[in-house]
Design a protein that fits this description.
Umud Fragment, subunit A, alpha+beta, about 35% strand, about 150 residues
Length: about 150
């Protein structure tokens, strides 16, 4: 007997994230899948993250947040804060840094899931590991060039 075929439905991102934001506004936590590789090596495509609303507080340096940037939602790490401005980047990005306002930050990543494994994301240790990784960007750039020479 054949297994039933699972059908998937693709939802428009704008509608999907509107539902996510509305659910967070009701005080509920939301789990969403990670798409793309911009947060490698800490989050990879297919991981699931649990988002919590930011009620009365702003994320700390090193936190991973869901923010509205250039008319889309991104899940990136806070690398700098000054007054009401926040700079963030993907852990896998070597050059790009986005700048948003506090109002653009919609949620914080509280926990991540990969297969049967889960881990807390917004602990002091995890935040500092993320900031150290960000600080290694110049060395990562050199390392990537070396790898290209070796494997080309």
């Amino acid at each position: 007997m054949k297994a039933p075929v699972r059908q998937t439905k693709t939802l428009p991102n704008a509608w999907y994230f509107e539902q996510v934001i509305n659910t967070l506004a009701q005080g509920k936590n939301v789990k969403i899948p990670v798409r793309g590789d911009s947060m490698r090596p800490f989050l990879v495509d297919g991981d699931v993250v649990e988002l919590h609303a930011l009620i009365g507080k702003m994320p700390k340096r090193g936190s991973i947040v869901l923010a509205y940037y250039n008319e889309r939602y991104v899940l990136h790490r806070v690398v700098r804060r000054k007054e009401c401005r926040i700079w963030m980047t993907g852990d896998g990005n070597i050059g790009q840094i986005e700048q948003v306002t506090e109002a653009d930050v919609r949620a914080i990543v509280y926990k991540a899931f990969r297969g049967n494994r889960s881990w807390m994301c917004d602990t002091a240790v995890r935040r500092w590991i993320g900031i150290i990784w960000f600080g290694l960007r110049p060395w990562r750039r050199v390392w990537n060039k070396i790898l290209k020479v070796i494997y080309i």
